[in-house]
């Protein structure tokens, strides 16, 4: 019978040191104080979990002072849940403050901790004493990102050898307690590609990537291509000692990311400055191979095949994670599972695929050198309370052989033309390989009834800012969609709504249509209420009746501005104008619908003051145009809003829709300020003179509709979008020249 991979899970549990500051991912995700997270894992169907028993956490001050309380509770619960533990002892760390990667006592110190852990938990059979030793040595001793912040090759090899000795000695200590204990040794595995002038550098990189496993398997002998290089740094005796007493992994744990395969190019002018680097003898750009090579690099399947050929030992994919939009996360996991299953069918022993970052991770965009972005996993913990994402039903489907979420089956960005962001480079390959590579690169485009059998997303509002932005995002993300105009689906004509839903049969509907002119609504009350309230509720009801999810957009103008603090989702509404009333009535009407079908969930996004470089009709674009014409701008200084960048808004809205979320949700870029200050921030970022912006009372601007004084939005349900500073910078970088030159 063909072996199938098991489904494992893992918590991002890095404890790394930057100078004298430690960063702990278990604390960053809140898992430190949420024992109930473990009960959530039981619904996944995972067979094992990579879990921290970290040296830095158990004995932070002195090797003889051990605090097992937290670990006892968590490991005991996992044992009760019948989830096998793969215990990690150092995860990208350098040990407690009394140790370090370059210290002589590092290996013996970790082994002492390992022995104590094995004695306390003799039932644990699987261990990873050091996670990714090669990667940690690179980041800590070659690139200088983490403590001890060295930048030299001798320090790199010393850090790696100390970690390898720590693995060997730790497994000896563990096996004195449990002779059957298994070593699951992880490391990041990618391949380097290069231009011809950098072939020697790529060749060296492709040798070095195996160093952790080669050392543990006793392969680093005189015949090894790296022997002379390491001996030249004085490590000959260390190499002999390791080769004479190896510790071969029972399972080779492959961590492979979309960034793992690299391309080295001596033509620096083709790439941004942040990619420039080099060796002692050559300067070159180092970029993701997936972003430049045609056909694409070998990817996960190639990495697994190479590892099997080299070692002939059981493999496991020990981290599967993609920090991207939700459907791309789904696709990466599904494809990793399919690769592992296919290799198993060929007789290659891939024991497991590990869902990594079950609770997400924080700060990896800065390589954990400073606080950074949070990336959700199977749960999103940005609000402090875990919220299941669409990855959870996918995990359950993989574990139990059920039906996968629909969007898990599409081609990922790494298989589409959008992946190429640098001048393309042809990768030497057979014609068959080139054709195979192209077969996955179908262009993303709007779908129609006859173009795709996949149920599309229906987007109402072809002429509006949000409708066009939603369509743009779906095209980029390879989400089949149909964008309808009022002629095809009129919210005020129920018969067109029903006909469109029955004809298109979407999996969800985004209502980005409706009345948007706030002041004109005061004199066109019935038209505004008809489109924004009655029509929107009718659309949501028609969706619910058919088991179709819906997404509607509301506004900060549903509030009266008297709270004195940012409004959250459960604050009572009290609109001051007709437009706000229309949105409040829409919310009330949709809330009253309930969900007659489990899939007919209704999500309502409240947002505010949105701006975009792709739309002529928004405040930020108007500010730049006027300033470029030399005009003075009058902007309200007594109204507080939370501006929202449309590309960020639609990206997160789509993620929430895919996750199956419902009810009101506030999405903004998280910073409250006056319209006048917002205009000044836009001006400075776009190279204009902010002194030409005059803050004035809003009543002097001739507006008809009343506005709330402070309608700032915050959220109890999740973190805000990216920072407003990042949003404004992105706006400035993507503002088309012709847009700001019009009417100049």
UniProtKB/TrEMBL annotation:
One of its GO terms (molecular function) is dTDP-4-dehydrorhamnose reductase activity. Its cofactor is Mg(2+). The keyword NADP applies. It catalyses: dTDP-beta-L-rhamnose + NADP(+) = dTDP-4-dehydro-beta-L-rhamnose + NADPH + H(+). GO terms for cellular component: cytosol. GO terms for biological process: dTDP-rhamnose biosynthetic process. Its EC number is 1.1.1.133. It holds the Pfam family RmlD_sub_bind. Residues 457-717 form the RmlD-like substrate binding domain. Gene3D superfamilies: Glycosidases, NAD(P)-binding Rossmann-like Domain, UDP-galactose 4-epimerase, domain 1. Belongs to the dTDP-4-dehydrorhamnose reductase family. Catalyzes the reduction of dTDP-6-deoxy-L-lyxo-4-hexulose to yield dTDP-L-rhamnose. This is dTDP-4-dehydrorhamnose reductase. It comes from Sphingobium indicum (strain DSM 16413 / CCM 7287 / MTCC 6362 / UT26 / NBRC 101211 / UT26S) (Sphingobium japonicum). The gene is rfbD.
């Amino acid at each position: 019978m063909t072996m199938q991979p098991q489904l494992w899970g893992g918590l991002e549990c890095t404890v790394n040191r930057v100078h004298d500051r430690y960063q702990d991912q278990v604390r960053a995700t809140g898992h430190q104080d949420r024992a109930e997270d473990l009960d959530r894992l039981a619904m996944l169907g995972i067979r094992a979990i990579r879990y921290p028993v970290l040296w830095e956490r158990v004995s932070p001050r002195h090797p003889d002072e051990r605090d097992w309380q937290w670990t006892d509770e968590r490991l005991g619960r996992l044992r009760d849940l019948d989830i096998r533990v793969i215990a990690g002892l150092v995860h990208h760390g350098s040990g407690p403050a009394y140790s370090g990667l370059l210290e002589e006592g590092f290996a013996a110190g970790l082994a002492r901790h390992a022995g104590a852990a094995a004695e306390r938990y003799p039932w644990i059979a699987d261990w990873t004493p050091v996670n990714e030793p090669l990667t940690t040595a690179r980041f800590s001793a070659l690139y200088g990102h983490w403590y001890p912040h060295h930048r030299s090759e001798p320090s790199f090899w010393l850090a790696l050898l100390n970690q390898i000795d720590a693995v060997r000695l730790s497994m000896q200590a563990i096996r004195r307690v449990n002779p059957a204990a298994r070593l699951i040794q992880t490391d990041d595995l990618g391949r380097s590609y290069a231009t011809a002038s950098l072939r020697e550098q790529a060749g060296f990189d492709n040798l070095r990537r195996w160093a952790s496993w080669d050392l543990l398997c006793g392969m680093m002998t005189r015949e090894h291509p790296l022997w002379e290089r390491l001996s030249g740094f004085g490590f000959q005796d260390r190499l002999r000692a390791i080769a004479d007493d190896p510790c071969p992994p029972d399972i080779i744990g492959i961590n492979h990311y979309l960034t793992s395969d690299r391309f080295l190019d001596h033509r620096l002018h083709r790439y941004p400055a942040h990619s420039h680097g080099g060796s002692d003898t050559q300067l070159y750009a180092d970029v993701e191979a997936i972003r430049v090579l045609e056909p694409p690099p070998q990817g996960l399947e190639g990495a697994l095949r190479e590892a099997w050929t080299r070692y002939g030992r059981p493999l496991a994919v020990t981290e599967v994670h993609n920090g991207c939009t939700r459907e791309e996360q789904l696709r990466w996991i599904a494809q990793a599972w399919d690769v592992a299953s296919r290799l198993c069918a060929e007789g290659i022993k891939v024991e497991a695929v590990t869902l990594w970052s079950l609770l997400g991770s924080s700060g990896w965009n800065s390589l954990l050198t400073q606080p950074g972005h949070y990336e959700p996993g199977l749960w999103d913990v940005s609000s402090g309370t875990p919220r299941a994402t669409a990855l959870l039903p996918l995990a359950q489907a993989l574990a139990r052989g059920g039906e996968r979420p629909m969007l898990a089956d599409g081609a990922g960005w790494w298989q589409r033309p959008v992946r190429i962001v640098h001048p393309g480079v042809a990768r030497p390959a057979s014609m068959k390989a080139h054709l195979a590579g192209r077969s996955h690169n179908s262009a993303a485009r709007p779908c129609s009834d006859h173009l795709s059998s996949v149920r599309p997303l229906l987007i109402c509002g072809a002429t509006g800012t949000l409708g066009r932005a939603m369509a743009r995002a779906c095209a980029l993300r390879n989400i089949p969609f149909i964008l309808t105009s009022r002629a095809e689906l009129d919210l005020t004509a129920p018969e067109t709504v029903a006909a469109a839903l029955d004809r298109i049969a979407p999996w969800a509907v985004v209502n980005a249509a409706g009345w948007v002119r706030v002041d004109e609504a005061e004199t066109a009350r019935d038209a505004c209420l008809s489109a924004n309230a009655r029509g929107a509720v009718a659309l949501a009801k028609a969706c619910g009746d058919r088991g179709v999810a819906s997404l509607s957009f509301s506004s900060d103008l549903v509030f009266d501005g008297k709270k004195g603090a940012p409004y959250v989702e459960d604050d009572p509404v009290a609109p001051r104008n007709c437009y706000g009333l229309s949105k409040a009535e829409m919310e009330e009407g949709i809330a009253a619908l309930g969900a007659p079908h489990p899939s007919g969930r209704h999500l309502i996004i409240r947002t505010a003051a949105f701006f975009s470089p792709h739309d002529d009709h928004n405040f930020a674009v108007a500010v730049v145009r006027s300033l470029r014409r030399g005009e003075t701008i009058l902007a309200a200084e007594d109204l507080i809003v939370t501006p929202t960048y449309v590309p960020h808004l639609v990206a997160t809205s789509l993620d929430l829709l895919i996750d199956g979320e419902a009810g009101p949700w506030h999405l903004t870029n998280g910073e409250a300020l006056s319209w006048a200050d917002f205009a000044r921030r836009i001006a400075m970022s776009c190279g204009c003179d902010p002194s030409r912006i005059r803050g004035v009372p809003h009543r002097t601007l001739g507006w008809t509709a009343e506005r709330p004084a402070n309608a700032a939005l915050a959220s109890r349900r999740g973190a805000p979008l990216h920072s407003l500073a990042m949003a404004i910078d992105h706006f400035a970088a993507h503002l088309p020249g012709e847009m700001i030159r019009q009417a100049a």
